Amino acid sequence: MNASALGKLSALPRVRLAHFPTPLEPLTGVSRVLGGPSLFVKRDDCTGLALGGSKVRKLEYSLGGAVAAGSDVVLVSGSIQSNQARLVACAAARLGLRCVALLEERLDDMPGGYRYSGNVLLDRLFGAEVRIYPKGTDLDAEVDRAAEQIRAAGSNAAVVRGGAPEPHGVVGYAAGALELFQQAAERELRVDAVVMASESAGLQAGFLAGCRALDARTRVLGVSAKRTAAAMEASVHALAVRTTAFLGLDHPVPREAVEVDDRFVGSGYGYPASSTIEAMAVAARHDGLVLDPVYAGKAFAGLIAAVRERRFRAGDNVVFLHSGGAPLLFAYAERLDALE
Ligand SMILES: Cc1ncc(COP(=O)(O)O)c(C=O)c1O
After folding, report:
1. Labelling 251: which of 13, 76, 205, 327 has CA 20 to 30 A away?
2. Whose CA is nearest to atom 3 of ligand 1?
3. What structural domains and CATH numbers belong to the chain?
4. In whole angstroms, how far apart are CA 82 and each of 8, 154, 218, 302?
């Protein structure tokens, strides 16, 4: 990695929360049934904290900053089934911080388990104070109000907002790219492409910034869980440029390196499409991978389609970055009838 970027990264305050490095494994079964490139999986679903997920890479830095600043309370916002909120709740328990989770009912028709199972169940288990708001609430304003009240009572509150990733946390995903390319180099494995879910842009932007710091020309394909490709690409590019600048790199991520496929969102964020359910079954039945119906399931549907459409060469090595999210499976159980 570029020496100044590495220096910047290692100087940042950080708390250790996860099991790194996560495994890099071949997807032997799925590669066989699909044909074409050799598929691999980077197991960020196995980061250890609170049943895993990529977001802990970001939280090691953003909560590291909060701890260094003397915070004793952390507020987190998101949907009722926010993976990030679950990870923050667990990290707060580990770090001895109070956690307040401000969660929105983000779907019009919530599956039965949405309000009490999956991530929100774990938030409560980790001792977070859970506050639920109706769909359409201005959650940012609620977070500001709650933080103000907590500060007025004498506490030092840190805030982790859903959907607003900042370079000082996003650099964690750049470190994740470094980890993946080191593992690949040790095995003399050339990585031609990496495929991942994309929603608030942090994961893909950070990973691209890491590729830039490493001067890696690997293709990075984001699969949208929510927004159009044009909107996602603009957000990912803007955040990747801010992240490379934060790392002190004078060559930003070029616009043409940002690629997002939005064909697998289905009827909207948080609603699994038939391609999502097919992808979950393929991954589970041929390689034993557990994918969620909101992020990783849609991303894997994008990977399957890209292989079928021959968007990779037969000799390519393609890595699926499994970003976690398994608790969602249980919140969505009644929407997964098609799994037969
Ligand atoms: C499991 C999982 N994968 C992928 C993503 C997408 O990451 P990002 O929001 O950084 O684009 C999320 C975001 O919540 C997630 O929870």
Report:
1. 13
2. 323
3. 3-54+166-335 (3.40.50.1100), 55-160 (3.40.50.1100)
4. 30, 28, 30, 22
Residue 235 in contact with ligand 1 by CB distance below 6 A: no
DSSP bridge partners of 36? none
3-state secondary structure of 179: helix
29-61: per-residue pLDDT in tens? 999 999 999 999 999 999 999 999 999 999 999
Q: Which atom, in ligand 1's list, is nearest to the CA of 53?
A: 1
- DSSP, collapsed to helix, strand or coil, labels residue 285 as helix
CA dihedral over 280, 281, 287, 289, signed as positive or negative: positive
Phi and psi, residue 46, nearest 5°: -110, 35
Q: What is the pTM of this model?
A: 0.97
Q: At what angle are helices 202-214 and 167-186 packed, to 10 degrees?
A: 60
Q: Ligand 1 within 6 A of 22 CB?
A: no
**How many whole angstroms from 53 Cα to the centroid of ligand 1?**
9
pLDDT tens per residue across span 178-225: 999 999 999 999 999 999 999 999 999 999 999 999 999 999 999 999
